[in-house]
């Protein structure tokens, strides 16, 4: 895949760039002692530190899409995930705010910074999904948008004078919100995931999970997992992309036990045991969003941001985008897409694409 | 003094005794998307386990499922009074990807019950009319949306003139108190905007005491009721066992008025307004149906439409309704109309012909 650049195995190192918890660096910052046992110290192990410095300067992109019926707490969850008001909640109680008649795609970008690292986060909202009486093919605008981003990237890549850093608007992760009925998935959920799991990384989450007791939650999750399996729907992390045994065992555990994550989101803080926590206050108790005994928000957050962020991007780039690209090239008879490149003499398409410098 | 004592003060008692002997029929319909806790709520309301043997289909099965109407009957006895409760369920409602017109089978069902009653009423043997009309429809609104969804509005508009609607917010333990208030207000506003008539709980009598009136007003103000149902009894750390749902952060008590409106719903539906629901169904909704029905039977464009709509009970028996299903009767009348019109046309032609002949004859005579 990558040509000698150490990007292939950088996910473990890159994840160090995502702040807290910061695991101890695997490599010392500077050579510790002069009386080393090695024959001599070269210093190539500092490459990781150089990359880290570089990334901190340039920052990185992350594009997350949220899909689900209105009212399932999508915007609140995204705000809770990134601890900032990155998603404008549909003014829920505004009378003039009507449900859009077709699915709209709204992409809003934010730059958030933590520990010196800048992230350009784009949240892609899909209001109108699943809200009509007739929801046939309501996933089509979403599929179209995702493919359009791949197309944009492809066009940039095929250019002669390429930008140093191709702006990456491709959807790295799609959070699909399942309604907590407690019974099973709805036909619309199945249809959406069947169509879209082949083009984008789908992470199903069970929304507003504070309506289910522990038993109900575990039963529901089991049933959902089984339904997804029976229908051949591969959600992220997909089994076929596990790179090694370590990945496989880690991901197996997540796939078979934790997912889909049953989450609760909140942007309000309450005082619990002397601490201020994000939660929901009801007459019968306070639901703490980050308490693992209450819901799995912390698991989702760690999964998406702290451990698998880079992997999400890589799978998008190396698998989904490649699939799209191959299809496009095949459609054009092996030639690069002609539209938009008329009149230019095109270099032969490289056998493997150069990964974009992050 | 005995002469002035007529004795009909004992009438209510007589009525009471008769009703007790006869027992009550009540048909309750529950409607709403699946997964909103309808079955659990019904079991909680009537303290039964009506849905023991039901199978919940998974998503792929539901893709091909069409809406069905299911009826379950249970006899409940309390304090010597027998109630035959019929529950009408609408599995499949709102499940498909395309839910267009999915409410039509429900509307048809309600009208069929009216039709049946109309036929029975107009028939010869009226002693044992079975009243299968739907007296009340509990409509379950999702707490996850932002008020009524397009499907909710479409359903309610299709049935609001045909059945008493009591809207409830399902799974209300998903909401914090402020969210509940906002959602209720939003739903009330939407109902007004869409001109949907829900069941109006009647005002209490003016001779009730202030406390009771205040309570009644409060209850009416909390419509739509935000309910939580549970079939499980929870023992909460030493205190008395309650029906509830146990979470890691606390236990929701179904019968606690601070937690949800279950008690209000139970009181208003079962304890105080069961009879009123039946009466409104009979006096208002059924009569409306009957009037529309008979109006349509009359020849279109006929005179005295107004008088026909005020058909009294007596004249109803003169119309041969029980003979044919209503659709066929209509067809027959239309056919007869056509015939009449054709005959009239022919007559006019013949008359014109005759006049012409006469005129010609006169001419030839005069010539």
TrEMBL record, chain A:
<dbReference type="InterPro" id="IPR030379">
    <property type="entry name" value="G_SEPTIN_dom"/>
</dbReference>
<dbReference type="Pfam" id="PF00735">
    <property type="entry name" value="Septin"/>
</dbReference>
<keyword id="KW-0342">GTP-binding</keyword>
<dbReference type="InterPro" id="IPR016491">
    <property type="entry name" value="Septin"/>
</dbReference>
<dbReference type="GO" id="GO:0005737">
    <property type="term" value="C:cytoplasm"/>
</dbReference>
<comment type="subunit">
    <text>Septins polymerize into heterooligomeric protein complexes that form filaments, and can associate with cellular membranes, actin filaments and microtubules. GTPase activity is required for filament formation.</text>
</comment>
<comment type="similarity">
    <text>Belongs to the TRAFAC class TrmE-Era-EngA-EngB-Septin-like GTPase superfamily. Septin GTPase family.</text>
</comment>
<feature type="compositionally biased region" description="Basic and acidic residues">
    <location>
        <begin position="1"/>
        <end position="10"/>
    </location>
</feature>
<dbReference type="GO" id="GO:0005525">
    <property type="term" value="F:GTP binding"/>
</dbReference>
<keyword id="KW-0206">Cytoskeleton</keyword>
<comment type="function">
    <text>Filament-forming cytoskeletal GTPase. May play a role in cytokinesis.</text>
</comment>
<feature type="region of interest" description="Disordered">
    <location>
        <begin position="1"/>
        <end position="29"/>
    </location>
</feature>
<feature type="domain" description="Septin-type G">
    <location>
        <begin position="58"/>
        <end position="331"/>
    </location>
</feature>
<protein>
    <recommendedName>
        <fullName>Septin</fullName>
    </recommendedName>
</protein>
<keyword id="KW-0963">Cytoplasm</keyword>
<dbReference type="InterPro" id="IPR008114">
    <property type="entry name" value="Septin3"/>
</dbReference>
<dbReference type="InterPro" id="IPR027417">
    <property type="entry name" value="P-loop_NTPase"/>
</dbReference>
<keyword id="KW-0547">Nucleotide-binding</keyword>
UniProtKB/TrEMBL annotation, chain B:
<keyword id="KW-0132">Cell division</keyword>
<feature type="region of interest" description="Disordered">
    <location>
        <begin position="300"/>
        <end position="320"/>
    </location>
</feature>
<dbReference type="InterPro" id="IPR030379">
    <property type="entry name" value="G_SEPTIN_dom"/>
</dbReference>
<dbReference type="InterPro" id="IPR027417">
    <property type="entry name" value="P-loop_NTPase"/>
</dbReference>
<keyword id="KW-0963">Cytoplasm</keyword>
<protein>
    <recommendedName>
        <fullName>Septin</fullName>
    </recommendedName>
</protein>
<keyword id="KW-0206">Cytoskeleton</keyword>
<comment type="subunit">
    <text>Septins polymerize into heterooligomeric protein complexes that form filaments, and can associate with cellular membranes, actin filaments and microtubules. GTPase activity is required for filament formation. Interacts with AURKB.</text>
</comment>
<keyword id="KW-0175">Coiled coil</keyword>
<keyword id="KW-0131">Cell cycle</keyword>
<feature type="coiled-coil region">
    <location>
        <begin position="326"/>
        <end position="360"/>
    </location>
</feature>
<dbReference type="GO" id="GO:0007056">
    <property type="term" value="P:spindle assembly involved in female meiosis"/>
</dbReference>
<dbReference type="GO" id="GO:0005813">
    <property type="term" value="C:centrosome"/>
</dbReference>
<keyword id="KW-0547">Nucleotide-binding</keyword>
<keyword id="KW-0342">GTP-binding</keyword>
<dbReference type="GO" id="GO:0051301">
    <property type="term" value="P:cell division"/>
</dbReference>
<dbReference type="GO" id="GO:0030496">
    <property type="term" value="C:midbody"/>
</dbReference>
<keyword id="KW-0597">Phosphoprotein</keyword>
<dbReference type="InterPro" id="IPR016491">
    <property type="entry name" value="Septin"/>
</dbReference>
<feature type="site" description="Important for dimerization">
    <location>
        <position position="144"/>
    </location>
</feature>
<dbReference type="GO" id="GO:0005525">
    <property type="term" value="F:GTP binding"/>
</dbReference>
<comment type="function">
    <text>Filament-forming cytoskeletal GTPase. May play a role in cytokinesis.</text>
</comment>
